[in-house]
Amino acid sequence: MKPEETIDFQIKLAWQSIGRLYNTVAEQYGTTWATGNVLLAIDSEKGTPVTHLGPKIGLEATSLSRILRTLEERDLITRKPDIVDRRRVLVQLTAEGLKRRQDAKQAVISFNNRLRKCLGNREFERCLNHLSKLNEVFDNDEMEGFNALP
Q1: The domain 3-139: what is its CATH number?
Q2: pTM for the predicted model, two decimal places
Q3: Which sequence spans correspond to the domains of the chain?
């Protein structure tokens, strides 16, 4: 079997292409795709606990810490102790962070609209549906016990 005949190869290739596109757009704003993902993952009204951000967007703690530090230095976020549970730290967007979040959101909407135009509504919806089902397989641990060796 050739690599291009496997689903994981095609998903990885598409993911890398998406990353290059978003990084090109993010560069115009002096930021990165990863930073935009973090801004989009933060609840714009209530904030989001730091411990929820990593799993929400698939980032390791060290990478997330570096991005949060950068966002804080750029005055796009603040970190505040949770009023109810002082052990938790909430990440909240500043006014500038809200603007940048809106820019990131618009980039995602534009990307999806462009892809919908290229694929057509029906194919776009089918693709989205298939990827959602694939994620359900992983979320439901249906691949648990997978072992590549016979």
Answers
A1: 1.10.10.10
A2: 0.85
A3: 3-139
